[in-house]
Every structure is written in C-alpha cells, then in structure tokens.
Specification:
Transmembrane segments: 6-35, 153-175
CATH class of the largest domain: Alpha Beta
Number of helices: 9
Structural class: alpha+beta
Strand order of the largest sheet: 2-1-5-4-3
Protein name: histidine kinase
Subcellular location: Cell membrane
EC number: 2.7.13.3
Strand content: 15-25%
CATH topology of the largest domain: Beta-Lactamase
Number of domains: 3
Helix content: 55-70%
Largest sheet: 5 strands, antiparallel
Oligomer: single chain
Domain Histidine kinase: 237-445
Length: 446
C-alpha cells in the first residue's frame, strides 16, 4: 500500500474515533440537559399555578374553581398532600393515578424520574404556601417526548458529522498528497542517482524536513559525482604517472640488453633506471597510504600531541632541503598547544605541506601555530609565485600538481590525514606573494 493511502487511512480512522467519542459524549449529555431544561420549565409553570392557588385558597369554592382551571391547562399533574400522603387532585384518569401511586414514592422529593408502565416521566415539585400545609404541585412530562427531541438533535448532529468527516477526508487527501508528492519525486531522483544519471537530477519543491532531506540528497549526488569523476581522473593520472617511469625503465633496459649503448651510456641508463624505480616506489607507497586512509579506520590512531614538539620535528626534517635551497624556515608556535591526532601521520601531512612551500619559496617559509576556543590553527606560507587560479580549486585532488610538483599526491595525502583528524585544510594567497595553507585541528577528540 502506498504511503499516501496509509496516511489517509490513518488520519481518517483517527478522525472517526475522535468524532465517535465526541458524538457519544454529546448524545449522552443532551438528554440530561433536556431533562434539566424540562424540569426548569415545569417549575416555572408550576410556580405560576401555585401563585394563583395561594391567592385563591381562602374557600372551598375557590379551590373547586382552581381545579377547573388546572383541567383546562392540558397538563399532567398531581396535587399531593405530604401530611396525609394522598393525592388530592390529578388531571389524569383514576387508574393512571393509582398506577403512578403504586410504582413511585410520592414522599421522596429527591426522585425526579417516575415510572409508569414502560415509560418514564420527568417530574417537578412546587410547594404551596404556607409550607405547613404540606400541599405541593407535581407536574410531569413523558421522557419519550424529550427523546424525540434528542433524536432530532442527533440526526442533525449526525448530518453535521458526515459533512465534517467528508471535508476532513478531502483535506487529509490534499495534505497527504502534498506531503507524499515531494517524496515520490525524491524517489525518482534517487533512481537517477542509482543509474548514475547525475546530469538529469532535478530540484523538487518541498518545505521543512523534506526540503532538508532533498538538499542532502543533492549534496550527496554532487559529492558522489565528484568522487566518481575524481576516481576516473585518479586512474587516468595514475596510469600516466606509472606509465612514464615504466617506459623509461623499459627503454633503457631493452637498450642495455641489445647492447646498443656504450659503457658510459649504460652507466647513465642504470642511474636513470634506479631513479625512476625510486620514483615509482614513492608513487606506489603514497597510493597505498591513501588507500589505507580511505579504507582502514584502524590505520589511524589519534592521541594527544604537543604542537610545539610536532613543529620542531617538521623543522628538523625539513632543514636539509632548506639549507640546500638557501632559504629561511621561520616558526612561531604558542606554548602549551595540544592537538588530538595520529602523530606520525600528522607529521607526514605537515611535512608534505612544508616541503611544498620550500620547493616554491624564493627566500622564506613561515610556520605559525595558534590556539583559540579549543581549535589549533597552523599556517604555512611562502614567498614564491603562489598557486595558479586554474589549479587552486583542485590542488588537494590526487595527481594534481603545479610547476615543480613531484607526484601530485602529497597535498592529497595531507588533506586525507587532516580530515581524519576532524580538521580542515584550505589554501589562499599569502601576503608574502606565495601560497598560504591554513590547517585547523581540534584540541581534543570531542
């Protein structure tokens, strides 16, 4: 069953349950309200009659005249004497009066419903003045008359409920369709992602949480497309990077084997082959490291690291290259800065960034580390030519390298390690003229 049908059925069922309960409560209360209202009307009528009788109670002739007035009112009533427990007068036939007297306790003033045969009667009692006389007027109305009113009210209420339920069902259908339609459209977009039709993905109109989910799906699709493109580019670049040294090695190996080189050329060929083998080994090792970072979480073991000691290790390892190029490597690190990361791998990432700066620097490379609000910021900048606008957006992708670059994997490895440390690395233009790498790392694992 589709989600829209399920929601419509659930909403309609809930509405029916609620309206049934409301109907039952109203239906139960309406009879009580009708009884109370009828008692109030009987009491008002009775008080008028009692006032007339109190004014005319001076003689028996007046009483007989009052009896005649009562008979003309078309009322069901008793004139009851409490003191003698007897009915003085009634507008009903004698057998009916006898039946009422036998089935009900006239002396019980708390009993508002009397029985006669299979019917019930609503009663109202009004005491004559003076109270010592003990005479009271008892007025009656058949309960069936009130039930007729109750039934009429119920029919109207039931009709209103039917109209209300119809409107509610239509509204439920409208709102569930409005809710489910974006989900159906989103499902179709997910099918396109499944079939890798990224260029055909369309935005859907939605609000609230569904819009957030849709945005997440679009972001996922873009990231997946970027990842697949990067993987394709990676394999293309990897094949190219591996093919170049292999072709060089193959060329010299075949030349040496066929004896077309003299001794000097053979020695040179062997040196080139060793160099290319080492280069090939470096590329393969870096590719293996990237694969481990992507697929083996256990390959990354974070712990608390002191930033000052880590930067000193970077400087010590970079010193030979700095002296070779004749540039200055400056460091400025705040004391007591701590980082939560894998020390060995973070050292590798920083070395890759610093070596990149050294290769492109003209006179100096600066390293600065500061801490603010639980986050450590490490800045590495140089005074070289900087990164071109064409390469800058993809500088951290695999096999993307600028002028004087080596394998094109160093910065990709640095980014992977830093992101595994829950950090972030970005590159901008330095005020020194070269590139400025900004690394942000958390102070603790939280």
């Amino acid at each position: 069953m589709k989600l829209q049908s399920q929601l419509s059925i659930a909403f309609t069922s809930l509405l029916l349950v609620i309206m049934t309960i409301v109907w039952y409560v109203i239906y139960s209360l309406i009879l009580s309200l009708l009884i109370q209202d009828e008692q109030r009307q009987l009491e008002q009528t009775g008080e008028i009659l009692v006032d007339i009788l109190n004014e005319q109670y001076s003689s028996s002739n007046n009483i007989q005249q009052f009896y005649k007035v009562l008979e003309d009112q078309d009322l069901q009533l008793f004139l009851y004497d409490r003191n003698r427990d007897s009915v003085l007068f009634s507008t009903m036939a004698t057998p009916v009066v006898q039946g009422f007297y036998e089935n009900n306790d006239f002396a019980n003033t708390n009993d508002s419903l009397w029985n006669y045969g299979n019917e019930k009667y609503v009663t109202s009692r009004i005491l004559f003045l003076p109270e010592l006389s003990g005479i009271e007027l008892i007025l009656l109305t058949p309960l069936d008359d009130l039930k007729v009113v109750q039934q009429n009210f119920f029919l109207r209420l039931f009709l209103i409920f039917l109209i209300g339920i119809s409107i509610a069902v239509l509204l439920a259908y409208y709102f569930t369709r409005k809710l489910v339609t974006p989900l159906s459209q989103l499902k179709r977009q997910l099918k396109k992602i499944e079939k890798r039709q990224f260029d055909n993905i369309e935005h859907i109109k939605a609000t609230g949480e569904i819009k957030e989910v849709a945005d997440s799906v679009y972001d996922m699709a873009r990231e997946l497309q970027r990842y697949m493109n990067s993987q394709q580019t990676f394999f293309q670049n990897a094949s190219h990077e591996l093919k170049t040294p292999l072709m060089t090695i193959q060329g010299y190996a075949e030349g040496i084997k066929d004896g077309i080189f003299d001794k000097a050329e053979t020695e040179k060929g062997l040196e080139v082959m060793v160099t290319e083998v080492n280069r090939l080994k470096g590329i393969i090792n870096e590719m293996i490291l990237l694969a481990k970072l992507d697929t083996e979480p256990t390959a990354y073991e974070p712990k608390e690291v002191k930033a000052k000691e880590l930067i000193e290790l970077v400087v010590d390892r970079a010193l030979p290259l700095v002296n070779e190029k004749g540039i200055a490597l400056n460091q400025q690190v705040e004391n007591n800065i701590k980082i939560f990361a894998d020390e060995e791998k973070l050292l590798r990432a920083l070395l890759n960034v610093v070596f990149n700066g050294i290769r492109h620097a003209q006179t100096q490379v600066n390293i600065e580390a500061t801490n603010y609000n639980g986050w450590t910021t490490i800045i590495v900048e140089d005074d070289g030519t900087g990164i071109s606008e064409e390469i800058a957006p993809n500088i951290f992708h695999r096999f993307v390298k600028g002028k004087d670059g080596e394998t094109g994997l160093g910065l990709a490895i640095a980014r992977a390690i830093i992101e595994h440390s829950n950090g972030k690395i970005v590159v901008t233009q330095s005020l020194l003229g070269g590139a400025k790498f900004v690394i942000t790392l958390p102070e603790n694992k939280d």
